[in-house]
Here is the input.
Amino acid sequence: MKTLNRFIEKVGVDKVLHFVVGGWIVAKFLELGGLWVGFGGILFLCFISIIKEVFLDKESGADWFDILSAILGGVVELLTYYLITII
Here is the structure.
């Protein structure tokens, strides 16, 4: 648990939340229709992450690492789904 806490302190809670929510969004797309719909979920995630960072976080400015964290969470979810369906 100490290792996880150190990791979160180093990366930041905001990046971890972007990762988790990105994975959750792609998981919802995967529930709708499988792997190909999941790829559409990644595209949707890219779109809404950029919109959120550029237009809604005007005061703090766009943090591209937040966008990257969300997309990475979605990709990890997609790869996990793919590996589970193969096995």
